[in-house]
Amino acid sequence: MFLRKKCRYGSRKLQFLLLLLMLGFLLLMVTTLNPPPSNQSKEGTFQPVEFNLREGNRMDFVETQELLDAQEESQQYYPLDGLSPFISLREDELIAAVVVSPTGRRNHSKARKGYRVVGQPGRRSEGRAGGDPEPQLLPLPLRDGQGAARGERPLGLDTHGFNEALSERVSLRRELPEVRHPLCLQQEYDSSLPTASVIICFHDEAWSTLLRTVHSIMDTAPKASLKDIILVDDLSQQGPLKSALSEYISKLDGVKLIRSNKRLGVIRGRMLGAARATGDVLVFMDSHCECQKGWLEPLLARLSSNRNSVISPVIDVIDWKTFQYYHSVGLHRGVFDWKLDFHWEPVPEHEEKVRQSPISPIRSPVVAGAVVAMDRHYFQNTGAYDSDMAMWGAENLELSIRTWLCGGSVEIIPCSRVGHVYRNHFPRAFSYEDAIVRNKIRIAETWLGSFKENFYKHDPVAFLISKAEKPDCSERLQLQKRLGCRNFRWFLSNVYPELSQPKDPKDTPKFSGKLYNTGVGFCADYRPGRASAEGSIELSPCSDSLTQNFEYNSMKEIRLGSAPLFCFDVRHGKVIPQNCTKDPDKSQQQWDVQENGMIVHIPSGKCIEAEKSEDEMDLVLCVCNKNANQMWQFEHSHVLRQR
């Protein structure tokens, strides 16, 4: 009996131990899969915490962290420091986020209008009692190739579009060669210059180029003039840009880090940074730049005397492969073509004549988007950036054109120089071609007026998108009316008349317009497909649609409009649209438009013929026999103009 009771007791004890082991194992699994947020370390290292402001979460932070809380002001952002609100900034675009601040200077007792900063008082860092020490330059936390073992792709050319491996070996605080005009070195600036907030939006930027940009600003800008540097992390995914970057930034005086909790793009990211800026002047800068000595003072001096200006430094080139600094010897200005593509061109003679000295400001139709500065009041009151633009691209054109049309001016300041890394190519993470086209459509529909047809003729894809997806530009049109802006014809007459002037005769097409077939009485018509390779060329009743606008040029190409996008090509004996090739020797896109009306395919020697069937009418290649279906006429001939 005693033995039986003892066995029962032993089995229950064994069951209890097994139950404890199972509970321990489950607890271990839960902890592994859902780790609790780590606390602030004694050294002040910040570990990011994911949160959702929409759920009304309230968190306590120590002194190196701030949180933008916008949940109580549900529908409207109020003026900042007495300014009028952002015209195009809505609450859902101010994604309020984590802000890493180095010094713990906070005015939590003073509620800011529009949002307030909440936080938990923390002890002051002991190491900073006697002043801010020189920050230690940290190496890249995850060196190139170290992550390969964990399945991470090494940083390099494919990731960033430049030689990031070499950039790692370049000092974060290198001294650039002096390239300013000698007269710039003689300039003296007032001690009462306005202050500046530099805003840098980045997404998965290389560690070295991002921090070289930050240190370049800090080392070259006067402390009295530099209010702060605001980094806006646009949902970066690379490991080094998370907790390691937060720790690094916490050691830099005057640098703040805002982390967005969803992808914004450069345009909205810059607007988020601008909403947090307190400097008199906003300077928007790309995250792969280096500043020359004395770059900031000329910008601030110009804006102090002309607040209704959008200005830019001279943008020098940092070679993507070697990271050598190349300065432009001659002065250039920013321009654009009818496709709304940005270009540089030498300052024309008529503009040089109105400049008083070699260092006088340069009137520019547009400025590049890499570095641009303007008065904070002016930026807010004239509409900021167009927040309905997507990701990035063409925002500099919209800002510049709007500034000119609405009473301001756009200038390049020769004594201010900043280097910029122009990528060898845009990596997939930064490639938003559709977004850029849609941004251009918004510019055309808002600011070009009747001249938007010129844009659509040069960019047929934009025309097709605009018809399928009519953009809502009502908000910007109301802004245009409220500001009393001029029309685009004034811009062409007073700012950039070269845009409307005829081009070089060699660039003029030989024939253009509708391509009419005399046999069937219809015109060639481009029919887009879901993808560019799925489009077709068919015959349709003639109309004024831009899909029937073709050009025959000196390269012997028949293009859809003047855009180097789709050209007549051949597949299985049928004429189809294909991307225009850059190698004419290997091309099936060479045509001879003859005076007798036949269009001969040069590689095969056959002629384009209209083939009519029950369901459709196609363009096919047949042996040339001069029948009526092989006779074509372009709407316009430019042969006489070329002679």
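[next item in queue]
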Amino acid sequence: MLYIVGLGLSDERDITVKGLEAVKGSERVYLEAYTSILMVPKERLEAFYGKEVIVAHRETVESNSDDILRDADKIDVSLLVVGDPYGATTHSDLVIRAHELNIPVKTIHNASIMNAVGSTGLQLYSFGQTISMVFFTETWRPDSFYDRINENAKIGLHTLCLLDIKVREQSIENMMRNRPIYEPPRYMTVNQAVEQLLEVEEKRQEKAYTEDTIAVGVSRLGSDDQVIKAGTLKQLLTVDFGKPLHSLVLVGSRLHLLEAEILRENAVDLDALNLVLKRDYGIDNRLSSVRQKSPCKCAIRTYAQRLHADDSILQVQWKNQLYSWKTLGLCAIPLIALGLGVWQTQRLKWKLSLLDEVNDRMHRRPIALPMKITPDEINRNEYRRVIVHGVFDHSREMLVGPRSYETEPGFLVITPLVREDGSRVLVNRGWIKRELKDPKDRPESQNTDPVTVVAFVRKPPTKNSFVPDSDPEKGLWYCIDVEPMARYSGSQEVLLETIESDSVAATIHSIKNGVPLGVPQQVDIRNNHLQYLITWYSLAAITGGMLFFRLRKPKTSASTVRRMRSRAGKMLQ
């Protein structure tokens, strides 16, 4: 079994009872000594645990982990970690390696800086992302941590800054020469961290913090001589925090009144701290006296201050939301939808005008069809009734289908009409049922006498891409495709549609005897623009409302704050 045991923050006595039992039962005990350090030498640990402790430096844990895991599937091995075992990703990697070797792992947790920072008086649930700060060098001055601080600051959360430690670090020269010579240990102080923070702010200029931002510096947290000091970053530059380890907390704008009270107890300069608290956080210094007089008065002031802090966060969130890409995108949607609605309005007017014009053509007196007709004339006279004389050439009859009439399957009959001058036009004579497909079964439709046909002029329909190509040689026509039909029958590319009779008896007779049933006298021009118009205007209205509520400045609790402060002020008098 591999035990990963958290040691806590200070000395050998911080280990838990469960952790001590694991250590005493282990045959080998390692002390991880580079992600953090304990405040006592390892000899103190050995004396307290009654076990030899092997110091595991970076290369042991990261590169030579097999030494730690050796025989751990047969014996118990403990790895001691300062703080909590999972405060560093290195220990997670060790667990993964152990699992790959089928070595059972048990973790025994303990206190770490991540929860002990609550001793500063700042509430843990008000902390945002934790950052790590490394020593700057002449050629390497990373500032990626600044973005995390800025994100926390925008929503008023505190930021815990973990400061760099350098233990058994080699110089570049010794590393290149592969010489096991190590630099003296170095531990970043609060003062050095503040200097680096202010340098990065001067470079970035995004106001994530300033030299007047309130911060809390801590050292040796969890020990008997721990130090906790609160003040502005500028003030912490000159404070001596003593021996390592040091950490730093940047205080967010969403500061609770009770948090501020504990900050005062650890203030470097109480008057200066009170000035910043009142100016930047809206928190005055009368809480102590209020609490002493009446818990009720304290509650009133606490509530008012909390409302004020919440309003500050709302304003920051609103400003961030105002200039986000989501807002810009949402601005575009109602404008585009409105533009499309206007366009559909224009299209609707055009379509209604077109339908009126077509209906007017349909009800004009029929005219004689010219012997030669051009495509432009077809477009101008579509749905116009024409009279044409000639003889049907049934030998070139074409059946298009299948097509249904009131759910009954059948075909459309396309027959070329031979005119007096020998020219031909295509005539859609109408529908017949499937059982009368063979011309021999419908002799009444095979009239060879001269006829006079009254029909509509129609533009050649557009072939759908999903419809297969027709095969004239096999007599397979899947759609009315005027060009190949005209080529097959030797006709002009002119399509006429006969008109369905208004007589019910004539319709029944046509269906029964296979006489093609003409096309209904109606316009098949689609007009959905009113639906589209309503859709686009509705979308514009809905997204416009969403945009309004997104851009609207949030209502603050200013009136509530003033009322609560007024009540608290009267109680203080």
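[queue empty]
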